[in-house]
Amino acid sequence: MLPLHYNSNMDMLPTLTFRRANLSDADALRTLWPHLTPTEAHARLQRRGVWIVLGFWGSALVCGGELTRCGRRLEIANVVVLPGWRRRGVGAALVDHLCAVAQRWRVPSVQLTVEEANAAALALYARCGFEICGALAVTPSNRLLVMERSL
């Protein structure tokens, strides 16, 4: 797959390039998800049913996320925008790109889960067309909301 270039007339949003992660991107994964060991990063890049997308501005890594096949549906997971790039439209561009990839797989919708207390993420996903369709209780004080977007 060729990289997707996302350009906008908005002054705040840089030109982003998205591409699927490959085996040489273990360090990039560890930048996005610092809890991963080198072995875990390599294993994640080799998992079946997972499509990891990295977003770059020039050569700088700015974001990443995953599409995971769960039976007959796809789920967006592990969306991360690095701190210096937040609130600039990068997250929305990444989510829209992940949805475009999912659409090519000819699924009717894509889902994600988000912590109920994560107001910024909830607002982002709502702006990207996701609607709450359920909830999961992790603990009595922590719930995950299930959100879905039709494609």
Give the mean pLDDT.
89
Percentage of β-strand residues:
35-45%
How would you characterize the largest beta sheet?
8 strands, mixed
> In total, how many beta strands?
8
Helix content: 25-40%
The chain-level structural class is alpha+beta
Uncertain stretches of 5 or more adjacent residues: 1-5
Q: Could you say what the CATH topology of the domain at 4-107 is called?
A: Aminopeptidase
CATH architectural group of the domain at 4-107:
3-Layer(aba) Sandwich
Envelope shape: globular
Per CATH, the superfamily of the domain at 4-107 is Gcn5-related N-acetyltransferase (GNAT)
CATH class of the domain at 4-107 reads Alpha Beta
Secondary structure tally, helices: 4
Radius of gyration: 15 Å
Distance linking N and C termini: 20 Å
Spatial order of the strands forming the largest sheet: 1-2-3-4-5-6-8-7
**What string gives the helices and strands in order?**
EEHHEEEHEHEE
Provide an overview of this structure.
The chain is α+β, with helices and mostly antiparallel strands. It has a domain at 4-107: Gcn5-related N-acetyltransferase (GNAT) (Aminopeptidase), CATH 3.40.630.30. It has four helices and eight strands. The chain has helices at residues 26-32, 38-46, 90-104, 119-127; strands at 4-6, 16-20, 50-57, 60-70, 73-81, 109-115, 131-139, 142-150. The protein has an eight-stranded mixed β-sheet, with helices on both faces. α1 crosses α2 (38-46). It is globular, with a radius of gyration of 15 Å. It starts with a strand and ends with a strand. The model is unreliable at 1-5 (pLDDT under 50).
